[in-house]
Amino acid sequence: MNLGGKARLFAAIFLSSVFTAGAASAATCGNDASGFERWKTSFSQEAAARGVGQRALNALAGTTYARKTIAADRGQKSFKLSLNEFMQKRGSATIVSQGKKHKAQKASLFAAIERQYGVPAGPLIAIWGMETGFGRFLGDQNTISAVATLAYDCRRSEFFTDHLYAALQLIDRGILTPQAVGAAHGEIGQTQFLPGSVLKYGVDGDGDGRIDMVRSTADALASTANFLRAHGWRPGAGYQEGEPNFAAIQGWNAATVYQQAIALMGRDIDGAR
Description:
InterPro entries: Lysozyme-like_dom_sf (IPR023346), MltB-like (IPR043426), SLT_2 (IPR031304). It is built from 14 helices and 2 strands.
């Protein structure tokens, strides 16, 4: 074997050992609280190596295993209801009634959003009402603990690991605080964005120079419109089941009854278009 061949062999052995060591030290998921602290230590080391800042690492260190989050993740029974049962349980008639009032009160905001993103008021208001009762209840779980717990949990570890890294970036950027609270799965703000979606689709809807999904209705609604547009929303096309823009609503939530409910409530809020 010539010297070049030996060098390549040594390099391959070295790289193999590095990757093997990395795999061995990777954070290991679990199905109960017993391994959470050990997982946090390992994950923190990985996060630091990926450039996560000290502020975010401190926030991660302060997390606790979120038992309510696990219970919520295992018990999403409402998505198994029929469409009529689901809409009744979620108060669709109230959402439509109050939604029409919000549409009239915020007409200029919704007009501006539709001009920019092509998304009409109806589905945005339906999502806003369905998710948080028009911003009245945003959740009561610590966001970082919720996302960290789901990243550790083996059921959907890979999916929520991405969102945990996003949440840590949001803390480093000052968009999210370590004390932030939200929904059980770590959703943030008035329309309940997961952290990764805040990074990808969050926009400054009120022009104050920052993205605030919690306190700014304009930011939350414009970001929701931006999300739908990025998922294929076509200005002027219909959004009922079977129409072009229904696919964008499917991108928002994977449950069929949820998608159907948003489309129907949006239609009733918008009226004839």
